[in-house]
From TrEMBL:
Annotated pathway: Carbohydrate degradation; glycolysis; D-glyceraldehyde 3-phosphate and glycerone phosphate from D-glucose: step 2/4
A GO MF term: glucose-6-phosphate isomerase activity
UniProt family annotation: Belongs to the GPI family.
GO cellular component: cytosol
Organism: Glycomyces terrestris
Record keywords, A-Z: Gluconeogenesis, Glycolysis, Isomerase
InterPro entries: G6P_Isomerase (IPR001672), SIS_dom_sf (IPR046348)
Top-level taxon of the source organism: Bacteria
One of the GO biological process terms: glucose 6-phosphate metabolic process
Catalytic function, reaction form: alpha-D-glucose 6-phosphate = beta-D-fructose 6-phosphate
Record EC number: 5.3.1.9
Name listed for the protein in its UniProt record: Glucose-6-phosphate isomerase
Length: 538
């Protein structure tokens, strides 16, 4: 096969191949000795303001070695649960506490139920009696206080009690940082407990207890994942090939990175990388916007303002077959354990090149605070500008859904703009609405991202508020069929979901960003309408 691209570096089982000219970034990282400094956990690299946080957030560079200690106890716990007929894993967690388990689960075909939602329908679907009887619930939260995770845990506890499972505490496995409220609860009620390394932030925690506990309980060979990372780690200070350095320079090279699976064995890494990149690099009015694509060459993959990346599990390092013209801008090939470490390193290097602290997430808190306030005060009184069939239209001058979508496309027709669709719906039952991303991308030159609320609040939500202020926002909300109480809370899941959507609207509107909200008074009919209205637009 001829060499279609400019640069390829391969080491430790992983290869990065790119045609983008990243020599300046790579040279800078190498001459300034950044790989060795990151490997040595030098907290000064991202500037004086970042130093304090960085000094307690660099454990991920080598903590996977200690993760080997998890292998035996998790195998034992899995066997004990299996003896009791418990063979299904549900995971309560948000952002870094759920995205790595999800990509491991999808890649290995494990079938974990990942509940990173507040949609009552999506939660209720997990609470059927037959399923509860065979389910162990992993509750993962570093802080131990994330409202979605806490609410999901309460929902499961009530459901276990409701079907007469008296020893429900033993159905919970808690993963958290030392001294959190969750640790205290585990000890008080006698649930299983795995403490994580507190020197690793959520989005860098793939190879710690957060990524490994739920997946090992579902049958993943976590020793293999750790070995893959360990093999790759031999390259990180190397004088020779150092693929993560090339990837870091690629991430820093252009305002947007689009990411797709190449179909060779790794499934859904883009969703995990999206959080890593958006929360790490989308701040101070700058950073790289990650866009997760439905597949190779999906609409919006390419453009002068973006790099198009594919991720694969092939060990040859060569891109998936195709002509040079069809080649992505960068191809990252290697096993999943190595991918995690490579993308984490690359993000830290990109933060250095762009001049951004990759370990904080200053703008995530704002929407959280708004949600808290709205839960206490009540939702704002908003009236739709128009109603078109099963869709109420807010924040637009249009009287029809097609008109509102057209307005979004017009707003996005400006230098540096991007469109973010944020759907506070059930990502399993309402999944077909996600085709809107590709439909919008076909009709605009701007990058288009898709986010399920509230999951994206822990990912691209940081970029929306902290990155370049060029976002054009489409929020989709929907009527709830059956609501679900949250024990010992004054709000329900539907109330929490609505407050999260309203809180984020306020955060975006306070920045003067265009935001259209389409509320589906009947979800299925409304989704149908959105899909058809988009087709009407040229
Ligand atoms: O693990 P926790 O503390 O529940 O946090 C979940 C997620 O929320 C954030 O802190 C903020 O979005 C993420 O960085 C993190 O992965």
């Amino acid at each position: 096969m001829s060499e279609p691209m400019g640069k390829m570096e391969a080491a430790g089982g992983l290869a990065v191949t790119t045609g983008v000219d990243v020599n300046a970034g790579v040279d800078r990282l190498r001459t300034e000795g950044i790989p060795a400094k990151v490997a040595a956990k030098d907290a000064t690299l991202w500037g004086p303001e970042a130093e304090e946080e960085a000094s307690i957030r660099l454990g991920w560079v080598d903590t996977f070695v200690q993760s080997k200690e998890l292998v035996a106890p998790l195998a034992k716990l899995r066997a004990e649960l299996a003896e009791q007929g418990i063979d299904h894993v549900a995971l309560c967690g948000m952002g870094g506490s759920s995205l790595a388990p999800e990509v491991i689960s999808r890649t290995l075909g494990l079938g974990i139920s990942v509940l990173d939602s507040t949609d009552p329908g999506q939660i209720l679907a997990e609470l059927g009696e037959a399923s509860l009887r065979r389910t162990v619930v992993v509750v993962s939260s570093k802080s131990g206080s994330t409202v979605e995770t806490d609410s999901q845990r309460r929902g499961f506890e009530a459901a276990f009690k409701g079907v007469g499972i008296e020893d429900y505490a033993k159905r919970f496995v808690f993963v958290t940082d030392p001294d959190s409220e969750l640790e205290k609860l585990a000890n008080a009620q006698g649930s299983h407990l795995f403490l994580a390394d507190a020197t690793v932030g959520g989005r860098y925690s793939a190879l710690t207890a957060f990524g490994l506990v739920p997946t090992a309980l579902a049958g993943a060979d976590i020793a293999e994942l750790i070995d893959q990372a360990e093999e790759f780690a031999t390259s990180i200070t190397s004088e020779g090939d150092n693929p993560a350095v090339v990837l870091g320079a690629v991430i820093a090279a252009r305002p947007t990175i689009t990411i797709a699976d190449d179909g060779t064995g790794i499934v859904g890494l883009g969703d995990w990388a999206e959080q890593l990149i958006a929360e790490s690099l989308g701040k101070d009015g700058k950073g790289t916007l990650p866009v997760v694509l439905e597949g190779p060459a999906a609409p919006g993959a390419r453009g002068a303002d973006r790099v198009y990346a594919t991720v694969g599990g092939s060990s040859t390092g060569l891109p998936a077959s195709g002509s040079a013209l069809a080649m992505p801008d960068v191809v990252v090939n290697g096993p999943l354990g190595a991918q995690f470490l490579a993308w984490e390193l690359a993000t830290a290097y990109a933060g250095y090149l762009i001049g951004i602290d990759p370990f904080n997430q200053p703008n995530v808190t704002e929407s959280k605070e708004n949600t808290k306030r709205l839960l206490a005060e009540g939702l704002p009184d908003e009236r739709p500008h128009a109603v078109d069939g099963a869709v109420e239209i807010y924040g637009s001058h249009a009287d029809t859904v097609a008109g509102a979508l057209g307005e979004i496309l017009t707003d996005a027709d400006s230098e540096g703009a991007y469109i973010a669709v944020m759907a506070y719906l059930d990502r399993i039952d309402d999944a077909e609405v996600a085709q809107l991303r590709a439909g919008l991308a076909e009709r605009t030159g701007a990058p288009v991202t898709w986010g399920w609320g509230p999951r994206f609040l822990h990912s691209t939500g940081q970029f929306h508020k902290g990155g370049r202020q060029t976002g054009v926002f489409l929020q989709i909300t929907g009527e709830v069929g059956e609501d679900l109480l949250i024990p010992d809370r004054e709000f329900t899941f539907a109330g929490l979901q609505a407050a999260q959507a309203a809180g984020d609207r306020q955060a975006l509107q306070s920045r003067g960003r265009p935001l259209v909200r389409l509320h589906l008074t009947d979800r299925k009919r409304g989704i149908n309408q959105l899909v058809h209205a988009l087709r009407e637009l040229s």
